[in-house]
Automatic annotation (TrEMBL):
Name of the featured protein: CRP-like cAMP-binding protein
A Pfam family of this chain: cNMP_binding
Domain Cyclic nucleotide-binding intervals: 11-115
Superkingdom: Bacteria
Gene3D superfamilies, alphabetized: Jelly Rolls
InterPro entries, alphabetized: cNMP-bd_dom (IPR000595), cNMP-bd_dom_sf (IPR018490), RmlC-like_jellyroll (IPR014710)
Species, as recorded: Sphingobacterium zeae
C-alpha cells in the first residue's frame, strides 16, 4: 500500500531513498467503513490521508444544517483539512467515507517537521499544492460564480469514474441545489 503513496509522491518530485525510508516509518494503513467519519468538523486535523481504495467526501453543514460537499477524493488522492492543519485550528470541514476505504494516514505534525529537514519532501509539498490547490482549484472557484448548476452538472458528469460512484444527494449537495432541482436538470438534459 505504501508503495502507491510513494509512487504518487514521486510523480510530483523525486524523493531520495533516505526520505522514502523516513516516510515509511510515519505511515499507517487504516480502514474505514462506508459512512464512517474520518474527521469531524470542530476537531483538530492531525493527519494527512492518501486514498488507496474507496471514495471520501469533504463537506460542511450550511446555516440550515444541510450537508454541502466541497470535494470528493478518489483513489490516489491526498486528502486533509489543509487549512486547519496550517492554521492549527479546528477543522470547519468533515471527511466521511462514501464507500469502504483503505487509507494511508500520516501525522501532519511529523510530516511538516520532515519538510524542514528533507528538501525533496518540501519540493513534493510545493508541487502538490501548486497543482491541486492553485491550478486545479482556481477554475472550480470561477465555475461556482459564473456557471449555472446545469453547466456544473455537465462538468461533473464528464468525470465518469467519479460521477458513477456518487449518490444523487451527493451530486445535488456538491452543486448547491435541492434534489428536486437536480431532477429537473437531469430531465432537461435527457430531452
Amino acid at each position: 500500500m505504501i508503495e502507491k503513496l510513494l509512487f504518487e509522491m514521486n510523480s510530483y518530485a523525486a524523493l531520495s531513498p533516505a526520505t522514502t525510508e523516513v516516510l515509511k516509518t510515519i505511515c499507517q494503513v487504516k480502514q474505514f467503513k462506508k459512512n464512517e467519519l474520518i474527521l469531524r468538523a470542530g476537531e483538530y486535523a492531525k493527519y494527512y490521508y492518501f486514498v488507496c481504495k474507496g471514495l471520501l467526501g469533504y463537506y460542511r453543514p450550511d446555516a440550515d444544517g444541510n450537508i454541502v460537499y466541497k470535494l470528493f477524493f478518489e483513489e490516489n488522492s491526498f486528502c486533509a483539512s489543509t487549512a486547519a492543519i496550517i492554521e492549527e485550528k479546528p477543522s470547519k470541514f468533515s471527511i466521511v467515507a462514501l464507500e469502504d476505504v483503505q487509507l494511508i494516514q500520516y501525522s501532519a505534525k511529523v510530516f511538516r517537521e520532515l519538510i524542514a529537514t528533507h528538501h525533496d519532501l518540501a519540493l513534493f509539498q510545493l508541487a502538490y499544492l501548486e497543482k491541486n490547490w492553485v491550478v486545479k482549484k482556481e477554475p472550480l472557484e470561477i465555475e461556482l460564480k459564473w456557471k449555472s448548476a446545469k453547466e456544473r452538472y455537465i462538468e461533473l458528469y464528464k468525470n465518469q469514474s467519479l460521477f458513477k460512484r456518487l449518490k444523487q444527494h451527493h451530486i445535488a449537495s456538491y452543486l448547491g441545489v435541492t434534489p428536486t432541482q437536480l431532477s429537473r436538470i437531469r430531465k432537461e438534459l435527457k430531452s
